[in-house]
Specification:
Elements: H1 2-33, H2 37-66, H3 75-106
Helix pairs in contact: 1-2, 1-3, 2-3
Length: about 110
């Protein structure tokens, strides 16, 4: 039971960090759209820092599994992984969108 609770806390932690990272990436896009390229880059960097918390938790789980300590996979963990991957994709796209806004502003 303690392991299930631990996995639940890890999963919720990933969801929370990844969700915040995604929100910050979207905020960075909005800043770029408004012409605040410097602010957008700072916000995107903050998004990446927050996202690293979720990524570190995922890496711990992968390391456990690789060392032979099976990690039980449930719907909550799958949901957490989905949030993490979505936030990472959003960050990558935000980087490109910010660069596009910067190019447009330079013309």
């Amino acid at each position: 039971m303690a392991e299930e609770e631990s996995m639940e806390l890890i999963s919720f932690g990933i969801v929370a960090s990844a969700g915040q990272a995604r929100s910050l990436a979207m905020e960075a896009i909005a800043q770029a759209r408004e012409g605040d390229i410097e602010g957008a880059r700072k916000t995107l960097e903050e998004s990446r820092e927050v996202g690293l918390q979720a990524h570190d938790e995922q890496t711990k789980l992968l390391s456990r599994e690789a060392s032979g300590d099976h990690v039980p996979v449930d719907v909550l963990l799958v949901h957490a992984q989905d949030h993490l991957m979505t936030s990472m994709l959003c960050q990558d796209l935000a980087e490109e969108i910010i660069a596009l806004h910067e190019r447009i502003a330079a013309k």
